[in-house]
Amino acid sequence: MAHVLGIDIGGTGIKGAPVDLSTGTLIADRVKLETPRPSQPDAVIGVVRQLVADFSWNGPAGITFPGVVMDGVIQTAANVDKSWIGTDARAEFGKATGLTVNVINDADAAGLAEMKFGAGVGQKGTVLMLTLGTGIGSALFIDGALVPNTEFGHIEIRGKDAEKRAAESVREEHELSWGKWAGRVDEYLAHMENLLSPNLIIIGGGISRKSEKFFPLLTGLRATIVPAKMLNDAGIIGAAMSAC
C-alpha cells in the first residue's frame, strides 16, 4: 500500500493530499478548504467528501480529528462543534466517501510523521510532540511507541486550559508580542517537562516555520527542543500512515 490519501481536519481548515508512505512525501499539491462554521458532522463530512472527489481518490484514506478518538468514535471536541462527541467518525466518513478509512487524533498523526520521517527519527526515550495552532495538540512517544490521545493542551495553567493561554491563535487574537507569547509557551513547556521529563520536545503546527522568532526566547528547559521538520504537512502524512 504505497499511496494513501491523508486528510487533516483542524479548527480553521481541512487539508488533504495523497501520500507516498515509503518516503513520507505528498505526491500531489495539497488542497485546503475552510472548516465549516458551525463545524457539525454533516458539514465537515461534506468537505471531506469534496476533498476525496478533488483527488478522484478510490484507495484507502486516513483522517485526523482534533480530539480524542477511540476505535473511530469521537470522545472529545474542543475546537470543533460538540455535536461530534459520540459520533462514529470512521463509519460516517467511510459511508460518505465509499473508502476504507481510519480516524486518528490530529496531533498523534503529526507525531507519527515526525517520528518516522522528521525530527524524531531514531530518537529513543521519551519524545513529546506539541502542535501550536488553533489549540495545542500533543503526541507522546516512549521508545518510539505512541501513547495515544494525550490531549496535553488541556493541562491547566493559571486556572485555564494551556491552549487558551499559549496556542498560536491566542497570540494572533490578542496581538501578543513574540516575547510575551514565548513566556507563556515557556511556562507551559516547563510544566510539561516537570510532568514527563522528555528527552526531546518537537514543536509543530504552522508556527514551526517561525521557530527563529521564539525559540531563542525559551529558557531553562532541560530537554532538547526542535521545530518539526514536516511543518504543516505532518498531519496529512501521519493520517495516511495510520490507515495501514
Q: What is the H level of CATH, i.e. the homologous superfamily of the largest domain?
A: ATPase, nucleotide binding domain
Number of E-state strands: 15
Low-confidence stretches: none
Question: Domains counted in the coordinates: how many?
Answer: 2
Summarize the amount of helix as a percent range.
25-40%
* Separation of the first and last Cα atoms: 7 Å
**Radius of gyration over C-alpha positions, nearest whole angstrom:** 17 Å
CATH fold type of the largest domain:
Nucleotidyltransferase, domain 5
CATH architecture assignment name of the largest domain: 2-Layer Sandwich
Class by alpha and beta content = alpha/beta
Question: Mean of residue pLDDT?
Answer: 96
Strand content: 25-35%
Our count of helices gives 8
Q: What is the subunit organization of this protein?
A: single chain
Which CATH top level class of the largest domain fits?
Alpha Beta
Major sheet summary line: 6 strands, mixed
Q: Give the ordered list of helices and strands.
A: EEEEHEEEHEHEEEEEHHHEHEH
Shape: globular
